[in-house]
Write a structure and sequence with these properties.
The complex is a heterodimer. Chain A is mainly alpha-helical. Chain A has 13 helices and four strands. A two-stranded parallel ribbon of chain A has the order 1-4. Chain B has two domains: 85 residues, Nitrile hydratase, beta subunit (Cyclin A, domain 1), CATH 1.10.472; 82 residues, Roll (SH3 type barrels). Chain B contains seven helices and five strands. The chains are: A mainly alpha, B alpha+beta.
């Protein structure tokens, strides 16, 4: 099994990799003029994805119905509304909040959802938590859905650990010097959710109304939860 | 591997680009690649390893799902699910699958249901404990590892025992048994980045015991 980049370039691209990186594979194997016929490998990602899917279906490696179910689940069923409902409950129910902070996975199960090895970290007036995955893009999919492009970007992954306050400023959040910033790098199978601060003036709100205030960004730690301006509806 | 993926602490990647009302997927093909990649009968560390083998210039240029699309043929060929010739031709040559587990539609719904927190019967001895000062080992394996470069050689404190997980490294020599404790280790920001960092701040990383030595 190739384990180095050199191996991948020579073995992977030349053999398997025509579909991996056509330009590179092509440059290696076709160092001459193109005045002959040969089968062009589709370079368009849509065509390559279609070709791979057709092959995997034909080989019985995937069930097309399962592919559709996967897309439907992560496009329509899970998302920040689930994380929001967890936060809403925690704000309303101190005993649930304690259980959530002690064992996130077990507390989440009470609400009917699953997330392996979930750790919930609480923001306070003196502590601000920020979640990142520097090595790839680990993220609590069940609670927040699939991560946004910025969470997966090189800019966010690289700078969150070395300059979290600068990163937060880019999101419009200026933290005072006396606030402690804790950055959680998801380097193993543990997943993190930020329990944001409950905004003032929400004492009368129902659990559902509270949940509706909570954003994905707040549960990742790049924003605070705020009340909508007066005269608008949450 | 000290690859382009291990980017914690790099500074020249530009501003964070925020997108208003971003869709979950930006193209139909991203949905298909998402579903295909998640349906392959290999574990996530294996998939991540293939992504990390994308040459660095390509890795940095590609979007997230372009990386998955690039890694998928590697997952298929290196695991033996399909041959390079099949991927190149798009035609089944080596017979249909009888060996690999196929995800069924009904099963997908269960992926987001509650998971048991009491069925973990695996045990593993440990030499470390919460509150202990530790140093992350200075290792530079060429294979897959989950010890980020910025933490290597640095002093930290064990904040929490995250339980026992399977070590994901491909070069496991000197790192101990396959099943071992994962500890959440707090590193002071100044230990990692020097005086430019706030004295109040810290970075927490989840590290297998094999990455750590008592200090």
């Amino acid at each position: 099994m190739p384990t180095t980049r050199r191996d991948v370039l020579s073995a992977g691209l030349a053999a398997a990799g025509a579909a991996v990186t056509p330009s590179l594979a092509h440059a290696q194997s076709h160092d001459h003029d193109h005045d002959h016929d040969h089968q062009d490998v589709p370079s368009d990602p849509a065509l390559r994805a279609k070709a791979l899917e057709s092959l995997m279906v034909a080989k019985g490696l995937v069930d097309p119905a399962a592919l559709d179910a996967l897309i439907d689940t992560y496009e329509h069923k899970v998302g920040p509304h689930i994380g929001g409902s967890v936060v809403g409950r925690a704000w309303k129910d101190p005993a649930f909040k304690r259980r959530l902070l002690t064992n996130g996975t077990a507390a989440l199960a009470e609400l009917g959802y699953g997330q392996h090895d979930l750790t919930v970290v609480e923001n306070t007036p003196k502590v601000h938590n920020l979640v990142v995955c520097t090595l790839c893009s680990c993220y609590p999919w069940t609670l927040l859905g699939l991560p946004p492009v910025w969470y997966k970007s090189a800019a966010y992954r690289s700078r969150s650990v070395i300059d979290p306050r600068g990163v937060l400023r880019e999101f419009g959040l200026n933290l005072p010097d006396d606030v402690e910033v804790r950055v959680w790098d998801s380097t193993a199978d543990l997943r993190y959710l930020v329990l944001p601060e409950r905004p003032a003036g929400t004492e009368a709100l129902s659990e559902a109304a509270l949940a509706a205030l909570v954003t994905r960004d707040a549960m990742t730690g790049v924003a605070k939860v705020t009340l909508p301006p007066k005269g608008t509806h949450a | 591997m000290n690859g382009a993926h291990d980017m914690g602490g790099m500074q020249d990647m530009g501003p964070i680009e925020l997108e208003k009302n971003a869709p979950i997927f930006h193209a139909e093909w991203e949905k298909r690649v998402f579903a295909l990649f998640n349906s392959t009968d290999v574990k996530w560390p294996y998939r991540r390893t293939q992504i990390e083998l994308i040459p660095p210039a390509e890795y940095l240029r590609m979007s997230y799902y372009e990386k998955w699309l690039a890694a998928l043929p590697l997952v298929l060929t290196k695991s033996g699910m399909a041959t390079a010739a099949e991927i190149e031709s798009g035609k089944v040559q080596g017979g249909v699958n009888t060996k690999w587990r196929v995800v069924k539609a009904a099963e997908v719904a269960t992926w987001i249901l509650p998971v048991s927190t009491t069925s973990d019967k695996v045990t593993a001895p440990t030499q470390l404990h919460v509150g202990q000062r530790v140093r992350a080992k200075n290792i530079n394996p060429v294979g897959h590892t989950r010890l980020p470069r910025y933490a290597r050689g640095k002093l930290g404190t064990i904040e929490r025992d995250g339980g026992i997980e399977e070590l994901q490294d491909t070069d496991i020599q000197g790192l101990g048994p396959k099943q071992q404790h994962v500890y959440t280790v707090r590193f002071a920001a100044r230990e990692l980045w020097g005086d430019q960092a706030s004295p109040r701040d810290s970075v927490y990383a989840d590290l297998w015991e094999g990455y750590l030595e008592s200090a």
